[in-house]
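Per reviewer request, we include the raw input and output of the structure prediction for the construct analysed in the revised manuscript.
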Amino acid sequence: MNAPRTVVVSTRDHGDITVDEPEWCLGFHPTGYYRVDLSHAGPMVHLGTDTSRGEMVFSMACLEQRPFSEAASGRGVFVAVELDGDWYPSNPAQLDTIAAALVDGAVKLRTLARQLSVITAGGAG
């Protein structure tokens, strides 16, 4: 078993603090912020695709924990999901809901793709 990892972070309101660091954390902890703003973040997952104008990312997600948070999401581990320019702390049920919405969106895009294929092939549309 590995010994727990710790990191020392300099905060604006509590000076240097030592915190446990999860194995999945990338270890990037900016200094000079308030203790409540300290977070652990894992590798970023990019959801994207190739488009007619090149590759684009339409969403991102990562494991995150804010051990001193006072927010409703609490101090436990969650997945932060970027949607429409904002970040949403999500639990497993919420992630399943987001995934279902993406699947529903994919069905709608595939329906449009079939309609476009008929139109561009000279069929009725």
